[in-house]
Fold:
Amino acid sequence: MRCFGYTDEGRPLPDEARLIRHMAQQAIEGLLEREIAAELNAAGHVTSAGGAWTGKTVSRLLVNPRLAGMRTYKGEVVQKRAYPQVLAEDPDDYDSAEATHKRLVETLNGPDRASTPPTRQYLLTGGLAKCGLCGSNLMAQRSNSKRRGMVCRVSAPYFGCGKIRIAAEPLEEDVARHVLARFGSRRVRERLAEHIGEQAAQRLREELDEVEEKLRKLGEDYVQVPLERETFLAAQKVLARERDNLQARLAKSREVESLPEEITDESLATWWKTADLERRRALVQVVLDHVKVGSATRPGYTGFDAGRVAYVWR
Structure:
């Protein structure tokens, strides 16, 4: 399987190389691997195998010495500048590429990460917050003062308008208030019940088993029947995405299964206070498709401008 960022022959692919540099910058700035993966998936990017990104695939790619042009043998670097590098924009700047690789290894493989499981830092990444001007997904980005924020990115591969930026914390608090209030409706609570419990999980597991069986059968057909490679890869890509989607839904069903049996305003508010960000996000996605963040409606106002935010409910 080819390395992401390169052709089968080992030549850099400019679009994927730019994406790798963007991912590297995000990781060094402190964004977690799973959050980077969520942004990639929301933007429609796939791995070199045609599958969805995960935190593990992001981490494995970014610490790969190949990106800095280094050849390894049994985990040890045996030759520098053996391949074209993609971590620095200048193809000849191997020194910068090697320095970036070192920082990535220290960041992603450091003892702090190994001893402490990573936790999500943003509630609304992955398409839950969109630019109200151009419709692009808002991406996580800290300010110069290290405060969490969400922005519409202009640069590749996002190509947004770049005109929207909002502080993440007050936006997330506003979303929490609206989402919890939404569960005052009996119809919405009934919808929530469809997403939790053993019956819902069993349905998802059965669908997942069917998709995995189709993938297995497709592989057998490719070996036994003369399928064209392009046809096989296209079918495999569709089934792999369906499998990844079902796995994500099954994970979400587990994330909200800790909800109290009797859903009331009080019990849900208590649950929200103690739930981690993954479980909160799973609950949000039951009722919220996304929020649109527009331009400021109160020029000069430095607090949270609720008039900028429009809710699109499921």
User: Anything to note?
Assistant: Strands lie at 71-73, 76-79, 129-131, 139-140, 149-151, 165-167, 288-293, 309-313.
